[in-house]
Amino acid sequence: MEADLGALVSIAFFDTTHGKMDCRDCHGGEKFAATRAEAHEGMEPRPSATYAESVCAPCHNEMTSTFATNMHADTAGCSSPTDALVLARSTNDEAVIQGLDNNCSTCHVSGCGDCHVSRPQFNDGGLVQGHVFYAEPNSSLNCMGCHGSRIQKEYTGAGESEKTVLKADVHWSPGGMQCVDCHTVEWMHGGEEYDNRYDSPAAPKCVDCHPADDTFLAIGMHSKHATPESNTYLQCQVCHAQDYNNCTACHVALDENDLPFYETESSEFDFNIGRNYAQDDSRPWDYIVVRHVPVAESTFDFYGEDALGNYDAVPTWKYATPHSIQRVTRQTQDGCSSCHGNRDIFLTEDDLAGLSDLERAANKDVVLTEVP
Amino acid sequence: MTIKRLLTVAFIAVAVMAVLVLAGCSSEPLVAEAGQVTCAGCHTDREMLKADLAANPLPVVEVAESSGEG
User: Other CB atoms closer than 10 Å to residue B9's CB: what's the count?
Assistant: First the structure.
């Protein structure tokens, strides 16, 4: 978005509740000025950045007061022992946390405005509707502005797989479902402490809309594989996810000007079923879909050599919930034989070939020794 | 209407406006005084914004080049 358009306020804004206020009530600055510099003196372009202490709080306290517990505000929810991308692997927390702070925490939202008035600052901002506030974030401009390489490509069918032709997630097309239809305000605005993003009671679940009722169980495969009583209980995505994005070997560092950058070795759309390495009440399945995360043994070497000394502490193929749902996928198109005996869709020793002993050990609870 | 009633109405109107202003419900002036600009006066006019940005370019934010998918 061009800078002038990004700062352009529509006349329609002045008919809204927020438009009835004086600009300075939120942004500060000088009311009347002869020059641009004078007008912008003391101005705060992002007055919602401090949430509970921000200008939004007096009127929207029920949301701003809890937002700090939401993982859009920091990295909480992505750092539990079973799902940590890096910390569980760390033998040099100081180095790893320095790298996380410099390179990894910068994409989290920088205020209420990132979802409710402008594109995220991560994408250089820009007012979406001429400063008119909107309750529901725009899926394309707000959510996918940050969640691009995985969610956007999977959900809109923009990814490419060497193994199959990918369609958009059926919920997006023809479903027309927006991100907020599943990721509800109760989850987005926080209020609960949890170690793992999947542990929030408000996290979306397939059964919220697709309960295991008679209609559901009338489908043979569902009665065989989709109930706790099934001999082999499968996560829904095991049958209904299309290929999804997997990244490898991200390295983070600072350049000669102390500016953070990353280099990801590769990314590829693929599909793998793994053993459920963290089975519990919220993830009761025997088999799950797993995605390779971009960590490598040397990811944080710039900050401390061998900082990930416990690289084998958690899998590098992680529990995943791809946004690439279709009724017919390469796991369902030919009935039982689509999966049974089809080594290509399972995470096997073949997928670990060439990897280090530590990475092989990291995935020992995920990889299948025999294909069902 | 008597003068007393007019004064009462005027007093109430002024009081209500004062309360609104003190409560932060003041509205943005769209028209500036001569020789000056207001927030809305500039930010609702794209040509003025373009000219302003041409005369006062935004500071260049230095970002290191990353590669691959983030």
Answer: 11
> Is the ipTM above a cut-off of 0.90?
no
| Any domain includes B52 | yes
Nearest Cβ partner for A257 among B33, B37, B62: B62
A59-81 in b/e burial notation, b at 16+ Cβ within 10 A? ebeebbebbebbbbbebbbbbbe
Contacts for B40 with CB less than 8 Å, ≥ 6 apart: A9, A14, A23, B28, B29, B30
Is A29 a member of any domain?
Answer: no
Is the CB of A20 less than 8 angstroms away from the CB of B30? no
Pick the closest to residue A26 from A155, A153, A129, A133 (CA basis).
A133
Angle at A348 between CA A343 and CA A350, to 5 degrees: 90
From B28, B32, B37, residue closest to A22, measured CB to CB: B28
Query: Which region holds residue A249: left if phi is over 0, alpha if psi is between -120 and 50, else beta?
Result: left
Quote the number of domains for chain B.
1
What is d(CA A109, CA A121) in angstroms, rounded to the nearest whole number? 7
Please check whether residue A138 is in contact with residue A75, taking contact to mean a CB–CB distance below 8 angstroms: no
pLDDT band for B12, please (50, 70, 90 cuts).
confident
Domain of B40 in residue numbering reads as 32-58
Domain containing residue A271: 46-362
Query: Could you tell me if residue A20 is inside a domain?
Result: no
Contact A52, A68 (CB under 8 A): yes
A25 chain-B contacts, CB cut-off 8 A:
24, 26
pLDDT class of B26 with cuts at 50, 70, 90? low
Residue type, A179: C
At residue A84 the predicted structure's pLDDT band, cuts being 50, 70 and 90, is low
Q: Secondary structure of chain B: what % helix, strand, coil (to 5)? A: 50, 5, 45
The answer as to whether A300 is a domain residue is yes
Q: How confident is the model at residue B22 (pLDDT cuts 50, 70, 90)?
A: very low
The model's pLDDT over A285-341, given as tens digits with 9 standing for 90+, comes to: 999 999 999 999 999 999 999 999 999 999 999 999 999 999 999 999 999 999 999
Instruction: Specify the pLDDT at position B24.
Output: 44
Beta bridge partners of A254: A260
The confidence score (pLDDT) of residue A70 equals 82
List the structure tokens of A370: 């025999």
Specify the number of domains making up chain A.
Answer: 1
Scanning A232-261 for CB atoms below 8 A from B yields 245, 247, 250, 254-255, 257, 259-261
Q: Looking at the domain assignment, is residue A30 inside a domain? A: no
